[in-house]
């Protein structure tokens, strides 16, 4: 009887820890543990890493984190001038990197016909690829029933098909070389749907389905790290999709203390990559607590979400920004 009482007590402490610790963290418990006790980001020194969407935001900051660690980088996006500035700062972050260690390769990921050429360029340049970071993508703000199907198609092409296409080339290469790592910059919306973003939720769930399948098929050779940030302090809103094809949201992102900085998010991503974690959350306590309640106590979580209401969820996501759609 004492044995079962001990097991019961340990279970209670386990769940209490999962409710209390997120109140003081900005990431999930395992990621925080690895940040303190796991492999340092510097363990990635010498790895060849290709980052899409590297011209701004999280991708830009991740480039600096990995450059400091001594990685060789391929930086891709459409904006060449911005990529050159990112490269310049990468070289400033680590004086031991030379000009050939950081390659700027402009790429519109929507043009799938260019993917193989881009991949061959990377291999010809560095001889191999160790890690592919799929960071390119756009968010959305729109009322569910008003979203044009063309918007769903455009979002799927950018945020899913382009990633799958590039990743399949990388996986084939990794299977030839013996191992490799795919990193997906997803969103907590892949677990807990975000309000006013029906298409965005759909594409994030799709990404998780695609890459969790990859894990099952090639877990001995391919490491997949799915990074799920909550609200991050980047200028993403202006470029977000809306309910109409070709129309951008066009609203400046508010600064708010409940958003994780892009630099901090990139640092935590670096930890996740170095420790080959399969699934991580990055968010401030208000959202992190809610995620754990939904994860550990789904029935309670459903009641809590309904009680909090749409206005609270929108504020949790966008601070002072409200929907314009």
UniProtKB/TrEMBL annotation:
The keyword ATP-binding is annotated on this UniProt entry: no
Transmembrane segment boundaries: 12-31
Any Pfam family hit: adh_short
UniProt keywords, alphabetically: Membrane, Transmembrane, Transmembrane helix
Recorded coiled-coil stretches: none
Family, as annotated: Belongs to the short-chain dehydrogenases/reductases (SDR) family.
Protein name: Dehydrogenase/reductase SDR family member 7
């Amino acid at each position: 009887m004492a044995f079962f009482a001990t097991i019961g007590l340990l279970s209670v402490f386990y769940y209490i820890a999962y409710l209390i610790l997120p109140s003081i963290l900005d990431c999930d418990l395992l990621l925080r543990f690895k940040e303190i006790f796991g492999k340092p980001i510097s363990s990635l020194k010498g790895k060849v890493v290709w980052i899409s969407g590297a011209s701004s935001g999280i991708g830009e900051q991740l480039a600096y984190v990995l450059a400091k660690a001594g990685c060789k980088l391929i930086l891709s996006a459409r904006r060449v001038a911005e990529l050159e500035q990112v490269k310049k700062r990468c070289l400033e972050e680590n004086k031991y990197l030379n000009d050939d260690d950081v390659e700027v390769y402009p790429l519109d990921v929507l043009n799938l016909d260019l993917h193989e050429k881009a991949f061959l360029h990377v291999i010809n340049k560095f001889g191999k690829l160790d890690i592919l970071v799929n960071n390119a993508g756009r968010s959305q703000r729109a009322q569910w029933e008003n979203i044009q199907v063309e918007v769903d198609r455009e979002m799927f092409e950018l945020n899913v098909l382009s990633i799958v296409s590039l990743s399949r080339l990388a996986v084939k290469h990794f299977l030839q070389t013996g191992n490799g790592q795919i990193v997906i910059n997803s969103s907590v919306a892949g677990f807990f749907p975000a309000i006013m973003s029906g298409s965005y939720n759909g594409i994030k769930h799709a990404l998780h389905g695609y890459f969790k399948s990859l894990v099952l098929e090639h877990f001995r050779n391919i490491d997949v790290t799915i990074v799920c940030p909550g609200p991050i302090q980047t200028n993403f809103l202006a470029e977000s999709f809306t309910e109409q094809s070709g129309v951008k949201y066009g609203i400046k992102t508010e600064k708010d203390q409940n958003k994780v900085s892009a630099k901090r998010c990139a640092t935590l991503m670096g930890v996740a990559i170095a420790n080959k974690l399969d699934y991580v959350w990055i968010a401030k306590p208000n959202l992190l607590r809610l995620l754990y309640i939904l994860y550990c106590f789904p029935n309670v979580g459903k009641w809590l979400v309904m009680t909090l209401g749409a206005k609270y969820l929108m504020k949790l996501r966008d601070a002072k920004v409200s929907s314009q759609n």
